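Narrative of activities, Objective 1.

The group set out to show that a structural description can be obtained from nothing but a protein's sequence at a throughput compatible with the screening campaign. Below is one input-output pair from the validation batch, recorded exactly as produced.
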Amino acid sequence: MDTSILPFVKVQVEWAMHHRWLPGQKSFVSRPMPHLILWLVLDGSVELRAPGGTWRAEPGMTFLWNSSTFAAPADEPHYVLAPQGAEWLSVGFQATLFGQINLLQCPQRPILRTPGSQERSLLEAWMRQLVRAWNNVEDAADYLTMDAPRLEIYWGQAPHERAQLNLASGLVCRGLGDAIFGSCWQTLQAAGWTETVRQSIPHWLNLALEHVRQEPGTSVAAWARAVGFSPAQFRRLFQQYVSSSPQHYLAQYRMEAARRLLETTDIPIRAIAESLGFDSVPYFTEFFKRATGMPPARFRQAAQQVNV
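Output recorded for this entry:
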C-alpha cells in the first residue's frame, strides 16, 4: 500500500503476552474479538482447532489469525491447545485506515509462515519488549507467563484492568505495535490481502489517491476536477471520509514521499523537489525543515549514517 496513507493508519495493541503451557493445556475461544492475532512459537507446538480444520505452529513459525473468524457457539468448540506443552509470544492488534477501514480483516484461514533467522530474531526482540512494556515489568523473564488457567482469568477482567500503561509504556507500545504490525502487513500483502483493502476504499477516493501519486504538485481545485467533484464538494467528502482536509493530506503525502526518496535514493535534492511539485529548492527546503527540524541534505546524511 502506498506510504502516503501512513499518517492515516492507526494501530492499537490490545494485548501482549508470553505463554508457557504444560502438555495438554487448552483454552477455548469463546467470544468474537475484532483483533488480528500474531503468535511466534519459541518451543513446543501450538494448535488452533476449529470445525474448519486444525492449524499447528511449530518452533520458529509465526501464526496470523483473526479471532472473530474462529469464535464459536458452545456446540462448536474452537480452542487453542498445546499437545506436548509450548512456549510462545502473542500480540493482539486492531488497525484502521482513515478511522473507518479495518486493515486487519484477515483471510478466513490462518496464515502460517517460517521467517528467516534474522527476521525472526528481530520480531522476537520486538515482541518480548512489547510484553515488558505492556505488563510494566523490567524483565520479561520475571513476568508470570500466561498458562491456560491464567489466560481464562485474564479474559474475565474488564478491558481497562488488563493493562495500566504509564506514559513511557504507552509510547513504547505504540512504537513497537507499529513495527510488529508492519511485519504482519508484509505477510498479508504476500497473501493478496492488500488488494481486498484497496477494493474497500470508495472508487472516487481511489481515483483521488492515484491522482496525487501521478501529480503530487496538484492543487485542490485540479484534484477535485480529476475525480468529478466541485472543489467545495470534494473538500466536504474528503474531510468526512479521511478526517483530514485535502490540503493537509497533500502536505503529508509530499512529506512522506520526500523522506522516502531522501532515505533510499541518491536522487539530487533539486530533482526531488521538482518531482513533488515544489516551485523551488528553497521552498522545498523550508517545507522539509519545518516538518523534520532539519534541511533535506542533513536529513539524508543522518539517514545514510543510520543505514551504514
